[in-house]
Design a protein that fits this description.
It is a single chain. Helix 6 (471-479) crosses helix 12, helix 7 (499-510) runs parallel beside helix 12 (630-643) and helix 10 crosses helix 11. The strands form 4 sheets. The protein has a 17-stranded mixed β-sheet that branches. It has a 5-stranded mixed β-sheet with strand order 5-8-3-1-11, with no helix packed on it. The model is unreliable at 1-37, 92-105, 196-215 and 217-228 (pLDDT under 50). It starts with 14 loop residues before the first helix and ends with a helix. Helix content is 19%, strand content 31%. By secondary structure, the protein is α+β, with helices and mostly antiparallel strands.
């Protein structure tokens, strides 16, 4: 349906402005009398856990709809005696704008009233609907916004719920381009846990990280160790406090202060019958810098069977690790195969990096233009220990989340990305997003590996994208070290991109910097000394590329839109985005006048990219055989990362 360009009405940034926007949405998006949608719109508030006195993010997402949403408004109510809303952050994906328009009026507005316990939110799409590359419409599986909610320090342990009066249109209304469909809300349960207890130490930490591969290594003997006092501590299972279910010991080894939480494995295993989902080990306020959570193999294996996760929470950061990513059986085989699960200790550690790594990060930043290290590096480690042997668990099959807490008064907006320290002393991008907090901001990093991570500020601009449609996407990815310009501070956004270049940009965006495993496949036209040889080997190992039937990759050939979408569709599996099935493929492609030109080998991939909102085409055409440009590449990669919730 051809839609006229919507003319924006200038509205003041007040709640009266919200009312005006509500009226505007009704004018732009009139309901169709008697229209009954085939599918209800469904909105999901995530269920979360939070400690008293701490903040947590609550993502809000459109999970199901018949037609894309063009406007919405809602009022969310909460228990004012228990919770307070800190901030509302609109989603920043490729199809959703949260910035001010040329008239200075934001598309997204909200008002928080913690005194009465409610927040009101409204969004109206102001984009030109004729610009099909980015219509601004919100479709299924897209985020609407995130709420930053703090549990008050005196909040009692238990659950509370975010609610909406779904019968009041002033409190709950969604509009698409045809009508105002009914919408249903799910989720919104907040589990509050008491503030954690623990030991105290004021000794400084120098920190260190094991690193290395995944083969068994001799345990390193400890030296200069002080006595390790032990005391009982509380942990949390599914948000409920389990008193005296772990012990905490604080030790100093080679001037490194470490708190180790040893879980009472049998007590936690008994919780599995009640549906174990999350095991939280909170170690905050201890004054120590290095924290280790210790579980035995039997508990990890039991958690693996129930799809549970272990969360280590410290003053430095948080590590959220699904038990199935530890791969207990594989580790036991590496330990010789005869180890009893009860005797294998899995240690999950968060440690501020040592001085050598701090210096390496600083040296790498000094070699890059306009780059500042914002937060000191942190090591995240998982290892198994058994009878003098050690196996490092450094690679995962899915993205694993870790959070670095910023020092107080450090502005999270000054972070452009997280980086991983490589063995050669260079820094490379890892998918990162910043969460605003009441006292401390935090950076959420998702990666398929364990390593040393730091946070940097690296703003980037190019003279030839200042008025280009891709400016936001290009500058964002450049600030994340994903794309680069020329030496003359230009980007050449409309230039075609080669197959090797596209592969490299996608890998950098995903944070994939080395092969997952040894690669036996080789291409006749990829030389060992070429700049892209590592990128090609990495892409092969993750199943992103396969080359041509003549065993060539043709790295310097320009890549078509269909070829690019095929590689991106394979990457969707890595980031857990659903692909289009056979019936969806036909319907999605059928909406474009040139769908008949999409070859069979690319049909499902192209449809999958359309389904996830990564591409929209132009003038009703997909132009699958056309070369993809550098600007389009940046836009697609950013949309992929945003859609997956990685940035």
């Amino acid at each position: 349906m051809l839609q006229p360009k919507n003319k924006r009405v200038k509205v003041k940034k007040t709640m009266s402005g919200l009312i005006m926007l509500t009226l505007l949405s009704s004018l732009i998006l009139p309901g169709v009398a008697g229209a009954i949608p085939a599918v209800k719109s469904q909105i999901e508030f995530s269920n979360v856990s939070v400690q008293a006195g701490q903040s947590v993010k609550v993502p809000v997402k459109l999970t199901q709809n018949e037609y894309p949403i063009n406007a919405y408004n809602m009022q969310i109510d909460y228990d004012k005696s228990t919770l307070e809303v800190v901030r509302i952050t609109p989603a920043a994906s490729g199809n959703i704008t949260s910035s001010a328009t040329e008239e200075g009026v934001p598309d997204f507005q909200y008002q928080i009233n913690n005194a009465e316990g409610w927040v009101r939110i409204i969004w109206v799409n102001s984009k030109d609907l004729s610009q099909v590359e980015d219509t601004g419409l919100i479709d299924a599986d897209q985020a609407l916004f995130e709420m930053e909610i703090k549990a008050k320090s005196n909040a009692a342990s238990g659950t509370t719920k975010l609610t909406v009066d779904q019968n009041d249109k002033e409190h709950w209304r969604f509009n698409n381009l045809e009508y105002s469909p009914p919408a249903q809300l799910t989720g919104g349960t907040i589990t509050i846990t008491a503030a954690s207890s623990g030991g105290n130490s004021s000794s400084p930490s120098t920190g260190s990280s094991g690193g290395g591969g995944s083969s068994p290594a001799p345990s390193v003997p400890t030296t200069s160790s002080t006595p390790a006092p032990t005391k009982g501590v509380d942990i949390y299972v599914n948000g409920q406090k389990q008193e005296q279910s772990a012990t905490a010991s604080i030790s100093t080894i080679d001037n490194k202060v470490t708190t180790t939480i040893q879980v009472d494995n049998n007590k936690v295993i008994n919780q599995v019958g009640n549906g174990l989902r999350t095991l939280l080990l909170p170690v905050t306020g201890t004054g120590t810098n290095s924290v280790v959570g210790e579980l035995n193999g039997r508990l990890v294996k039991t958690m693996e069977g129930s799809n549970a996760q272990v969360v280590i929470q410290t003053d430095t950061g948080t590590y959220t690790l699904p038990a199935n990513q530890i791969k207990v059986d594989q580790v036991v085989r590496q330990l010789g195969g005869s180890a009893s699960l009860e005797d294998v200790k899995f240690q999950i550690a968060i440690t501020p990096s040592n001085d050598a790594k701090k210096a390496a990060i600083a040296a790498a930043a000094s070699k890059m233009n306009n780059t500042t290290v914002i937060a000191a590096p942190v090591d995240f480690e998982v290892k198994a220990v058994y009878k003098g042997q050690q196996v490092d668990v450094n690679r995962f099959n899915a993205y694993v989340e870790r959070t670095i807490t910023l020092p107080k008064d450090t502005d999270g907006s000054k972070i452009t990305t997280g980086v991983v320290l490589q063995a050669d002393g260079t820094m490379l991008h890892v998918p990162t997003k910043v969460i605003k907090g009441t006292t401390n901001d935090a950076a959420v990093i998702n990666s398929l590996t364990n390593s040393t991570y730091a946070l940097i500020y690296h703003p980037a601009t190019f003279t030839d994208v200042s008025n280009h449609w891709s400016r936001t996407d290009v500058e964002d990815l450049a600030s994340r070290l994903v794309v680069e310009g020329g030496g003359d501070n230009t980007f050449a956004p409309d230039r075609s991109i080669t197959r090797a270049e596209f592969t490299a940009v996608l890998l950098r965006g995903l944070g994939l910097h080395s092969p997952e495993s040894a690669v036996t496949t080789t291409f006749t036209d990829v030389n060992a000394d070429s700049w892209y040889e590592n990128e090609v080997q990495t892409a092969i190992s993750y199943g992103l590329i396969s080359g041509y039937t003549d065993n060539s990759f043709r790295p310097n050939d320009e890549i078509s839109r269909a070829e690019a979408m095929t590689i991106v569709a394979r990457a969707m599996k890595l980031v857990d985005l659903a692909k289009a099935d056979a019936s969806e493929t036909a319907n999605l492609l059928g909406a474009y006048s040139d769908s008949g030109q999409v070859q069979a080998w690319a049909a499902e991939s192209v449809a999958s990219a359309i389904k996830q909102g990564l591409v929209q085409g132009a003038d009703g055409k997909l132009m699958a055989d056309a070369d993809i440009s550098r600007a389009q590449t940046a836009a697609i990669v950013k949309r992929l990362l945003a859609k997956a919730g990685l940035i």
